[in-house]
Structure formats: C-alpha cells, structure tokens
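Weekly structure sync, notes
Attendees: PL (lead), two postdocs, one rotation student
Agenda item 3: pending single-chain targets
PL asked that the sequence for the first pending target be pasted directly into the notes so everyone works from the same version. It is reproduced below exactly as submitted, 138 residues in total.
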Amino acid sequence: MNRSIEILKILRTGMQSMVADTPDVQIQYTRIFNFSEGRVSLRMEVANVDAGLLPMGRIDVVEIPSNNGRTTCNCTLTELQTGQEQRIILRLKNESQRENECEKVFSFFRTILSIPDKKPLDGGFSSTRGAHGNITND
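Predicted structure, written out during the meeting:
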C-alpha cells in the first residue's frame, strides 16, 4: 500500500495545482484506508463559495504485485454526482512514466471541473520518494 499512498499524494498535489488559479474553488480531501482489501481511496469534495460543499470524485488505488520491478496500480476513478466510473492501470517505473500515467487521472477530473488542459501541472513528480513522512492533513 506504500505506492498507493504515494500515488494519492501525487494526485492530490496535481489536483491542487489544477484549481490554483480559481480562487473561488477549493478541494477538500478525505483519505480512506481499507486494509482488508489493500485499497487506499481519496474522496474529493469541491468547496465553492456559491454552492457550498459538493461531492466531486473519488480515486480508489490498489497496488498490483509484479515481478519485473515496475509498480502497477489499478485505479478506479468515480464522479460522485453522476456515478460515472473509469478504470485505468497506472504503470510506474520511472519519473517520466509516472507523470504520463498520472495525466490520465488528471484528465478525468479536468473534465468534471471543466478546466482546460494546461502545462506544466505540478504533481510533485520530482520529490515523491520518502514523501509519505511529510504528508499534512490540511
């Protein structure tokens, strides 16, 4: 589950970066651990000054063991208002691959928030190893 937590941290940082230019929108996060299923989830709600707290989406991440040195995670992306789901596999061997794979997740949530594609998206890719010790609960 260590890599799953790392993935959620990267995704959370990227989501923060996505809404950084929109002062009226803030995302509230709840991290959920399911140890019996080996799943870590990140539930997101949008805090908007006009509409209050609205459910936005959830990311469920399950690490898949592999023998080839690559970490693979099975992710289920869910839009909470419509129930729309998308399943993706993230293959994470190196930093550039990690950035490309996480872009799949960012694209899903950009659609929900009606945010256009923009680069660079700061997902914290340069400083993810060992970062689990620096996680703060905002």
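Discussion points:
- Residues 22 and 115 are 10 Å apart (CA to CA).
- Strands lie at 25-34, 39-48, 52-64, 71-79, 85-92.
Action: rotation student to compare against the earlier draft before next sync.
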